[in-house]
Amino acid sequence: MVECAMRPGTMSVCKIFHVNEESKQLVDIISDDGKTWTKVIARNPKSLSALSSGNASYGARSILDQAEDYLTCAKLYPCMYLSPKVVFEFVSGIEETLANKLKAKGIIVKGTILPDSKKHEEINDSYESSDEEIFERCQVTMEDVSQCIEDHIDINILNLDVTAMMAYVSNMTNGFCHYVFKQDVLTQQAAWEAERPVKPILEKLFEGKTLISCKTAWYNFEKIVETLGGPMEKKRTADLKELVTVYEDDYGGQNDYPRQNLKVRGHVRLRSKIIFNFGHRLKALTVSANEGFVRAAAQQGVTYATFIHESRALTEGKEATAEKIL
């Protein structure tokens, strides 16, 4: 498995996913930006066929059982709303009948396809450790995956986070970035905005898309604008409201197990969990500057379809005390 894990495109090795409260699934190799899960099998082909034919001791799990486990888990952890492809790679080969059974289930089979042996003999081998043994000895590593909108043009619904709506209506992103503010963070954002304007990016992203928001996101956004926003920012908020459909937080049904059990701690705040889960249920791309939440959720094994942009604050109310750059 070491050789397979060192191939280009490998993201994680021996990654553990929670299927429910009682069971976990270990995935040998994750690659292709999370779109491919690979299990590496080095057992004797005859042993695999014998076990899959029921010629084994009670309780022993066949490769067909393991295929079902992988496929079930893959449905719980979609990548851009598509279940990862499941690849079973047989280092020592696999007999034809068993390979066909796996393919019928939706498994991609790699390795030499061998003729069926006339008689399946139960053969003990020690090439492949059990999932339980690997679970005990491996270190789980996480790599954050940035997901780019250009790779997913088929998603037509955008879920707007509070940070996205603030960036859209801010005076800073609407032609008023040439200021030195008393607050260093605003001055830094203004300099970034002059170099890398955010509004054109959002406008291009919004073109032809359905814009949605949950009540928690919209309520918090409106509250911030009412408290800190200036007249022009409030006017842009009213205009944006005409473009966005606001739904109840629980719209779209129940969360799946991984997102329902995402622990609220650190950068995973309850508000963000509600907003991102809402977008996931509606198979939307969540537009946000909250990269901290995305990273923290990924560390718990939960990923979201996101478009991350730079953060921009409301600044119209701060312009009176700022120094304008001529």
UniProtKB/TrEMBL annotation:
Ranges for domain DUF5614: 20-133
Domain of life, source organism: Eukaryota
InterPro entries in the cross-refs: DUF1308, DUF5614
Span of domain DUF1308: 158-323
Pfam family, one: DUF1308
PANTHER family assigned: UNCHARACTERIZED DUF1308 (PTHR13379), UPF0415 PROTEIN C7ORF25 (PTHR13379:SF0)
Family the entry assigns: Belongs to the UPF0415 family.
Name of the protein in its database record: UPF0415 protein C7orf25 homolog isoform X2
Organism: Vanessa tameamea
Gene that encodes the chain: LOC113401267
